[in-house]
Write a structure and sequence with these properties.
The structure holds two protein chains of two kinds. Chain A contains five helices and seven strands. Chain A is an alpha/beta fold. Chain B contains eight helices and no strands. Chain B is globular and about 50 Å long. Classes of the chains: A alpha/beta, B mainly alpha.
């Protein structure tokens, strides 16, 4: 019979389909795992509602659980349970090492334009805070584009949500 | 919940149709950054529409796709503001974006107070994403400042923010295109 830990371990091997350096567990999108006999129920909280990778993630989870010999039930939870604050410290470090600046901590009242336009964000390549907002939006809904004036390199900043 | 279903559908229809209209800038926006921005906003809006249709669909016993694509034009509850095809008028596009995000924020705030926890939770989730749309709209509103074309477009579009019931001819064209695949093959899903 499959244990809860085995399920978590299996899910930790699934890379994010769009940012494969981080696993679904480190992304913090798995809210709970519940094992009952050979039934495994996973509560999955999407990052962005319009993210095209949602189905891919859901199917990958179901596949891994089936491979453990259990019957998966993946429940998508569309509430505000997920925040970028749920990304683990290991996940944040892996993002940074791959050139994605990790999200700033969430503040009361949510993000503000004045904050995005400030120099409070650090370049993931050289560590400089002399960076500017290029575009609130980026290649996927979860990312913004910034430019480092110090090493003259554009980089992707994970949005705080 | 049931009396709220009409309100949810109103919002879902707004988000779907506006998402469609925003996506018309993909590839042809005046700046590359805006090509990316409007495409991303469109993707978010359609994601919100899907989540809202799923919620309403559970009450009504239908799927999100059926609500999005299988209704007759007169059954859609979107406002005339989102129906208009504004490409290639950038000032009018920014005016609509600004007006819509303002009105949408009020609506989302009200839904966040709902007694229905699923609806309140979804509204809170949508709000987190919309915060970036609002910032983008505000940035362009400030940037265009007292540009007369923006002022004229705001004046023209403001009365349409909550104008519902009667559709524009442009909506009927969009509906034809949007539903053509589903109508061509009964029961098809993608």
């Amino acid at each position: 019979m499959v244990t809860e830990q085995q399920v978590w371990n299996a899910l930790a091997e699934i890379p994010d389909p769009e940012i494969p350096v981080i696993s679904l567990v480190d992304l913090g999108v798995i809210k709970s795992v519940d094992v009952s006999g050979d039934q495994v129920r996973v509560e999955f909280t999407p990052t962005f509602l319009g993210c095209p990778a949602l189905e891919v993630m859901r199917d990958a989870m179901a596949e891994r659980i089936s491979a453990l010999g259990a019957t998966p039930e993946i429940q998508v939870i569309s509430d505000d349970a997920w925040s970028t604050d749920r990304i683990t410290s290991k996940g944040r470090e892996r993002l940074r090492a791959s050139g994605f600046a990790p999200p700033a901590p969430r503040e009361v009242g949510g993000p503000k334009l004045v904050q995005l336009q400030s120099n409070a964000f650090r370049c993931p390549y050289c560590g400089s805070q002399d960076t500017a907002l290029e575009n609130i939006f980026g290649p996927t809904p979860c990312r913004s584009v910034r430019y480092c004036r110090s090493c003259r390199q554009p980089f992707e900043q994970f949005k705080t949500i | 919940m049931r009396d709220q279903v009409q309100k949810i559908l109103e919002m879902a229809d707004d988000e779907l149709i506006l998402g469609w209209r925003n996506s018309e800038w993909t590839g042809i926006a005046p700046l590359l950054e805006e090509d990316v921005a409007f495409s991303s906003i469109a993707q978010n809006e359609i994601g919100h529409a899907r989540a809202l249709y799923e919620l309403a669909g559970r009450e009504l016993g239908v799927t999100a796709d059926e609500l999005a694509f299988d209704r007759q034009p007169e059954e859609y509850r979107c406002s005339r503001l989102v129906e208009l095809r504004l490409v290639p008028d950038w000032a009018a596009t920014i005016a609509r974006h600004y007006l819509y995000e303002q009105a949408d924020a009020e609506r989302i705030d009200a839904l966040k107070q709902s007694d229905d926890l699923k609806l309140a939770g979804l509204a809170a989730k949508i709000d987190r994403e919309e915060a970036y749309h609002r910032m983008h709209a505000q940035m362009w509103f400030d940037r265009l400042g007292d540009e007369p074309r923006l002022a004229a477009a705001l004046e023209e579009l403001r009365p349409l923010v909550d104008a519902r019931g009667e559709h524009t001819p442009e909506f009927l064209e969009l509906w034809e295109e949007m539903t053509s695949v589903r109508r061509s093959l009964a029961g098809a899903t993608w």
